[in-house]
């Protein structure tokens, strides 16, 4: 009699436990490369908007800086241990995150990789700006600004960051193939740090006082490069194409320190990253790859409705 009673309790516990798991809201972990830059703040706004729309909880957690690869690995592993329902991760280093992502998928957790690719194909969806194309756009914009001839330099982001490496490769390939009158005379990493990017840019400008153009491939590199141009009195003389945006970069675009910015849509990126996982959890098959397209904006574009939605995505969608 006692055994039958215990069995009944176990069956009831299993039933109610299963019911609780079915009833609870799904939990999606969104892990950016970093949390401090405006780009990632906009990604978060999009991810949380998707959480509200699709009735899932979004857990946002990432390292403070984009070069903290070990910290990003720890966060991914902690989400696997927590048994979240899905993980969206912007990969800071394409080889370092392979095993953590594979562990998540092997544990039955679907993974969407966004913004920057990884050397694994176990994920559900890869979602990013077409960064090679964006780098090509930057090259053609800068070439036009300097009339197709002169000396230019690149303030790169950080080694191993697939998204920015693609931008830099697109930039270099276009300059080599389409503009024989332009030479890339220097290339230094900003290491996702505006102070290091500023120092790198100042070194390049000092060594190349007649530098005609400059391209920075990410927000922190762009911020540092703008500071260097202003500190050395090169603003408006060395033509500058930046990537992404921030309040100070917008001010520098209005002031002529920056001639053009290549803009992504981070809000849309965060929203779609969560949506792909919701679709997967609901039995749908999201696309294996989603390409988003960048846009080049100049001072004349700043007050248009389309650009304002890119610059202030959360406010524009309220």
What fraction strand?
Answer: 15-25%
Structural class: alpha/beta
* Inertia-based shape: elongated
Question: What is Rg?
Answer: 23 Å
Unreliable stretches (pLDDT < 50, length at least 5) are: 1-22
Percent helix: 40-55%
Rounded mean pLDDT is: 91
| Total helical elements | 12
Biggest pleated sheet: 6 strands, parallel
The topology string of helices and strands comes to: HEHEHEHEEHEHEHEHEHEHEEHH
How many distinct beta strands?
12
Secondary-structure map with pairings?
Layout: H1 2-23, E1 27-31, H2 38-54, E2 57-60, H3 69-81, E3 86-89, H4 98-106, E4 111-114, E5 125-129, H5 131-145, E6 150-156, H6 162-178, E7 182-189, H7 194-207, E8 213-216, H8 219-231, E9 239-243, H9 247-255, E10 260-263, H10 266-281, E11 289-292, E12 295-297, H11 305-311, H12 313-316
Parallel strand pairs: 1-2, 1-3, 3-4, 4-5, 5-11, 6-7, 6-8, 8-9, 9-10
Antiparallel strand pairs: 10-12
Helix pairs in contact: 2-10, 3-4, 5-6, 7-8
Description:
The protein has helices spanning about 1-25, 40-55, 70-80, 100-105, 130-145, 160-180, 195-205, 220-230, 245-255, 265-280, 305-310, 315; strands spanning about 25-30, 55-60, 85-90, 110-115, 125-130, 150-155, 180-190, 215, 240-245, 260-265, 290, 295. The chain contains 12 helices and 12 strands. Helix 2 packs parallel to helix 10 and helix 3 (about 70-80) packs parallel to helix 4. With about 325 residues, the protein is an alpha/beta fold. The strands form 2 sheets. Strands 2-1-3-4-5-11 form a 6-stranded parallel β-sheet, with helices on both faces. A 6-stranded mixed β-sheet has the order 7-6-8-9-10-12, sandwiched between helices. Helices cover about 50% and strands about 20% of the residues. Strand 3 (about 85-90), helix 4 and strand 4 (about 110-115) form a beta-alpha-beta unit. It is elongated, with a radius of gyration of 23 Å.
């Amino acid at each position: 009699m006692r055994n039958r009673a215990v069995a009944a309790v176990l069956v009831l516990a299993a039933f109610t436990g299963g019911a609780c798991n079915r009833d609870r809201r799904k939990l999606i972990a969104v892990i950016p490369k970093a949390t401090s830059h405006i780009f990632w703040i906009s990604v978060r706004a999009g991810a949380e908007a998707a959480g509200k729309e699709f009735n899932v909880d979004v857990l946002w957690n990432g390292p403070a800086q984009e070069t903290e690869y070990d910290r990003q690995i720890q966060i991914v592993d902690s989400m696997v241990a927590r048994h979240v329902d899905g993980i969206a991760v912007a990969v800071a280093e394409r080889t370092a995150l392979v095993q953590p992502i594979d562990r998540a998928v092997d544990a039955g957790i679907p993974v969407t990789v966004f913004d920057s690719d990884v050397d694994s194909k176990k994920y559900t969806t890869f979602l990013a700006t077409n960064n090679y194309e964006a780098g090509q756009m930057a090259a053609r914009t800068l070439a036009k600004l300097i009339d197709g001839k002169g000396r230019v330099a690149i303030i790169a982001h950080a080694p191993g960051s697939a998204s920015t490496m693609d931008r830099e490769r697109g930039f270099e390939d276009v300059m080599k193939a389409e503009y024989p009158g332009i030479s890339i005379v220097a290339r230094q990493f900003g290491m996702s740090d505006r102070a290091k990017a500023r120092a790198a840019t100042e070194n390049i400008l000092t060594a190349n006082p007649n530098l005609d153009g400059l391209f920075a491939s990410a927000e922190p590199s762009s911020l540092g490069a703008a500071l260097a141009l202003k500190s050395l009195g090169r603003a408006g003389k060395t033509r500058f194409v930046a990537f992404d945006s921030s309040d100070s970069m917008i001010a520098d675009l209005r002031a002529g320190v920056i001639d053009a910015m290549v803009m992504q849509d981070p809000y849309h990126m965060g929203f779609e990253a969560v949506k792909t996982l919701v679709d997967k959890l609901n039995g749908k098959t999201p696309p294996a790859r989603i390409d988003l397209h960048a846009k080049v904006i100049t001072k004349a574009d700043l007050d248009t409705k389309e650009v304002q939605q890119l610059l202030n995505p959360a406010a524009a969608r309220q």
